[in-house]
Structure formats: structure tokens, C-alpha cells
Specification:
- With 495 residues, this protein is of the alpha+beta class.
- The chain folds into three domains: 261 residues, Uridine Diphospho-n-acetylenolpyruvylglucosamine Reductase, domain 3 (2-Layer Sandwich); 110 residues, Alpha-Beta Plaits (2-Layer Sandwich); 93 residues, Alpha-Beta Plaits.
- It contains 17 helices and 20 strands.
- The strands form five sheets. The protein has a seven-stranded antiparallel beta sheet with strand order 15-12-14-13-18-20-16, with helices on both faces.
- A hairpin with a 4-residue loop joins strand 5 and strand 6.
- Helix 9 packs antiparallel against helix 14 and helix 14 runs antiparallel to helix 15.
- The two termini are 37 Å apart.
- Pfam families: FAD-oxidase_C, FAD_binding_4.
- This is FAD-linked oxidase C-terminal domain-containing protein.
- InterPro entries: FAD-bd_oxidored_4_C, FAD-bd_PCMH, FAD-bd_PCMH-like_sf, FAD-bd_PCMH_sub2, FAD-linked_Oxase-like_C, FAD-linked_OxidoTrans_Type4, Oxid_FAD_bind_N, Vanillyl_alc_oxidase_C-sub2.
């Protein structure tokens, strides 16, 4: 995995840069010790590691602005980082760049129940928002499996989803406003409690931008009232293809569940051993369907879903009878990723999205790829919106295994694009999918995306080496920064 070569001049100035940053921030907010820096060498994609030049941990928007202003003036690269739970290498450090950690910006600034919104800092965990408003019967809808740890700022950067995104949307569908800081240190606000403003959708542009355009320092989120009733159904199938058929049939029937997830046999067995959620062990695939709304409606929808499943060969049907049982069904699903760690020394969690109608075919072809590459595969994914999370198991200590896992993952992502899907659903591109971007986008597409990057960050200081496959810089795309009305190198002829 090629990254931009480090600037030897910046590496030589390490002590000077660290001293300058320490002068900008309070004591304890700059990490320069070699052993302490190891904690920041990777995010959730641990196959790639790099110790940063330094780590800054600002506590306010003003301090974030001061750090970015310094980095802009001194041409120091910056990698924004939330909780480090990302799975695409988006927070992978650079040897000649600093980490801008946002973990100390962790306050819930305002809860406005009459307007059904809350203002929070980016270091607040996803789950903490729901916990803060649960007493009043409200919650924040996006719920990634890592919600106990992942930060809302990271959710914005990756446009995270979760098991309930099918009905209630991704992060972008649940945001009202953002405060962010540009690489020049300018603090800007977009959106808020008011209705949408005219003009460019800057908030939509920033959501999912993976730290390439600016650093988010405050988020206004939409709060939803908890549904009157929520019940989950466990449906077991003899094949993964049959479970995929059921998913497509439920949506085709006009039913939009609160959540709809599939786990295949390897995932079922290791998860049940880890959590004891009561999953059946004699099925090849398990479909979890949650219906919510008024009790009468939920009862009717459960009957319809059960019939659709039976028509497609479901051999197991169990409906939750209490809130504790419903939560237990989901506890197993949300613990699937750590559960896989009990049966494999290493694994890569992939992320691609496909049309729902192609689920049976893609599941079959992924099984064939598993045999072809000689690596085990477990499937856990958001079936309702076709967001796949194949878990490729390997042993990094075994020569060649990491490369085989990478090749297997690349084949899965190419398959997603081939059937009309996309490279990512919620994990982002980062470095994991960076070199596969031409599979989905042509040169014109990529140039347009780079043009947006250059408009916000002409010196390519924000998270360089991520997303764009040729390690392109704005200068490579023909962009030129004009300072004080004067072009650089005015002696050169221009055409």
C-alpha cells in the first residue's frame, strides 16, 4: 500500500514542530513520546500502521483552529482522528504529519427536545446521544455496531449507518447542522435548527468527506421519538440464497422494517458461543427483522413477514416477546465482529453495497471466491439496503496470508461494482479501497472529485494519500494557488 513519501525537511523539524504545537495548546494536549505515539499508529484497519510525527489533542474549536492555522502556514500534513474505530484506514497517520485527535471535544452542548435536536461535540460517542435523551422517550437513529465507542465526528466523516439505517437513514439523513474548521483555521457553520438554506449543500458535501475537506467541531443532530412498539423476528433458512430472496420479497411487498440483518452459519455459530443470544445452530443463514410502530400494525407486519419467509423455506421462526429479548437478538448481531476474533487470529471487515435483488447471486459468488483464495469467510450485513460486511479470516503471521486477504477483499468489491453496486456503504474509502476507485469512477469523475478537494485544501494537507488512487495533489490537477494577487514563479511563461 503506497503512501505519499515523507518530507525529509519536516522530519528534520520534528522537535521544532512539537515545541510550536506545545506552545499553542495547554499542557498534556500534545503527544510526542515514541511509546505513546504507538497508540495512534492505526485505526480499526490494523493491517496498516505508521507512527505519526506528533499527536495534538485540542479541547475546543478555537484550539482546533489554532492547530490547523499553524499547519497551513508551515505546510504540515494533518490527519483528523475520532475514536479510531474506522475500518478503512481513514485515520492512518503519516510519518511527516500530525494526528488531530478530537477525543477531548466530548461534551453534549445542548438538548432541545421541543425542537427534537441536540448539539454535540465530535468526540461524543454515538450511543451517548441516545442515552442522554432516553429518559424523555427520544433517541438518535444511526447505530453502527461500534456505537458504544465510535464518535459522532467520525460518523459524520464516514457517513455511518447501522442496523436501523434501512428505515431511518444514514448519518446524512439525521444531521441538521455542522460547525467545521478549514485548513486555514477559519471557523464556519452550515445548517442548524432552522429549515434548509438555499445555495450549495455544504453540509451534504462534508458528510462522508473522510477528513479531506475540513475538521468538524460541532454537530447538530435530529432526535426521534421512540416507536410505541418494536419487536424482532428471528428467521432461519436452509441457504443464504433463500435468506437473500426473503429480504428482496419483504421490501417488494412494501414493508420497510426498522432493521433487517443477515448472518451466515459461521457468523451464527461464533456469535452464539460469544453472546448466547439464543440463535438456532442448525440453519445456514439467520435473518433478523425488526418491525416498529403502533402495536396493531407491528402484529400485522410480523404475520406478513412470517408468511413471506415460510414461502421461501424458512425452517425457524421466533418472535421477541419482551424488550429484553429483542435487545438480546440485536446484542448478538452487534457482537458479531468481536466474536469472529475468537476463531481467527486476524480478519478484515469489508464494506460494499449491492442492489437487493442481486443478494442471492453475490452470496453464492462470494462463497466461490472463498474457495478460490483458500480463506474462510463469514457474512454479517445490513440486508435491507444491500450493505455487505464480509469478514475475511486470515493469519497475518503466516507468510502470504495478508496479501491473499487483500486480493480476496478486492475481488469482493469488484463484484459489488460489477452487479451495479458501489465500493462502500458506510466505512468509507480511506486507503483500503483507494486503489479500486477507478473500478467505479472514470478519470473525469475522479478529476471532478479532486477539484472539490482542491477548492477546500489547495495544498493537500488534510488527510493526504486517502481516497484518490494516484496520490494526486492539486498541483498535479493543474490547480494553482494565487497569494496576494501574485502567481508563483512569475518568470515562467504561461499559456
Amino acid at each position: 500500500m503506497e503512501m505519499p513519501p515523507p518530507d525529509e525537511g519536516l522530519l528534520a523539524r520534528r522537535a521544532e514542530i512539537a515545541a510550536d504545537l506545545e506552545a499553542l495548546l495547554p499542557p498534556g494536549c500534545v503527544v510526542v513520546d515514541g511509546a505513546a505515539l504507538k497508540a495512534y499508529e492505526s485505526d480499526g484497519l490494523t493491517a496498516y500502521r505508521q507512527v505519526p510525527l506528533a499527536v495534538t489533542l485540542p479541547r475546543s474549536t478555537a484550539e482546533v483552529a489554532a492547530v490547523l492555522r499553524y499547519c497551513h502556514e508551515n505546510k504540515v500534513k494533518v490527519v483528523p482522528r475520532g475514536s479510531g474505530t474506522g475500518l478503512s484506514g481513514g485515520a492512518l497517520p503519516l510519518a511527516d504529519g500530525i494526528i488531530l485527535g478530537l477525543g477531548k471535544l466530548n461534551k453534549i452542548l445542548e438538548v432541545d427536545l421541543p425542537n427534537r435536536c441536540a448539539r454535540v461535540q465530535p468526540g461524543v460517542t454515538n450511543l451517548a446521544i441516545s442515552q442522554a435523551v432516553a429518559h424523555a422517550g427520544f433517541y438518535y437513529a444511526p447505530d453502527p455496531s461500534s456505537q458504544i465507542a465510535c464518535s459522532i465526528g467520525g460518523n459524520v466523516a464516514e457517513n455511518s449507518g447501522g442496523v436501523h439505517c434501512l428505515k431511518y437513514g444514514l448519518t446524512t439523513n439525521n444531521l441538521l447542522g455542522l460547525e467545521f474548521v478549514t485548513i486555514e483555521g477559519e471557523v464556519l457553520r452550515v445548517g442548524g435548527k432552522h429549515l434548509e438554506a438555499g445555495g450549495y449543500d455544504i453540509m451534504g458535501l462534508l458528510t462522508g468527506s473522510e477528513g479531506l475537506l475540513g475538521v468538524v467541531t460541532e454537530v447538530t443532530v435530529r432526535l426521534l421519538a421512540k416507536p410505541a412498539t418494536a419487536r424482532a423476528v428471528l428467521l432461519g433458512f436452509p441457504t443464504s440464497e433463500a435468506a437473500g430472496d426473503c429480504v428482496a420479497a419483504v421490501i417488494a411487498a412494501g414493508i420497510i422494517p426498522g432493521g433487517m440483518e443477515i448472518m451466515d452459519k459461521p457468523a451464527i455459530h461464533c456469535t452464539e458461543a460469544f453472546v448466547n443470544a439464543g440463535y438456532p445452530l442448525d440453519v445456514e443463514a439467520l435473518l433478523i427483522v425488526e418491525l416498529d410502530g403502533p402495536p396493531v400494525e407491528v402484529d400485522m407486519l410480523i404475520e406478513r413477514v412470517s408468511k413471506i419467509a415460510a414461502d421461501r423455506g424458512a425452517s425457524y421462526n421466533r418472535v421477541s416477546t419482551s424488550e429484553a429479548e429483542r435487545a438480546n437478538f440485536w446484542a448478538g448481531r452487534k457482537a458479531a465482529f468481536p466474536a469472529i476474533g475468537r476463531i481467527s487470529p486476524d480478519y478484515i471487515c469489508m464494506d460494499g453495497t449491492i442492489p437487493r435483488r442481486r443478494l442471492p447471486e453475490v452470496l453464492r459468488r462470494m462463497s466461490e471466491l472463498s474457495v478460490q483464495h483458500g480463506l474462510r469467510l463469514a457474512n454479517v450485513f445490513h440486508a435491507g439496503d444491500g450493505n455487505l460486511h464480509p469478514l475475511i479470516m486470515f493469519d497475518a503471521n503466516k507468510p502470504g496470508d495478508t496479501e491473499k486477504a487483500e486480493a480476496f477483499g478486492a475481488d469482493i468489491l469488484r463484484l459489488c461494482v460489477e452487479v451495479g453496486g458501489v465500493l462502500t456503504g458506510e466505512h468509507g474509502v480511506g486507503i483500503e479501497k483507494r486503489d479500486l476507485m477507478p473500478t467505479m469512477f472514470n478519470e473525469t469523475d475522479l478529476d471532478q472529485q479532486l477539484a472539490v478537494k482542491c477548492a477546500f485544501d489547495p495544498d493537500s494537507l488534510l488527510n493526504p494519500g486517502k481516497v484518490f488512487p494516484q496520490l494526486a495533489r492539486c498541483a498535479d490537477a493543474g490547480w494553482m494557488k494565487v497569494s496576494g494577487g501574485a502567481l508563483p514563479h512569475p518568470d515562467l511563461p504561461r499559456f
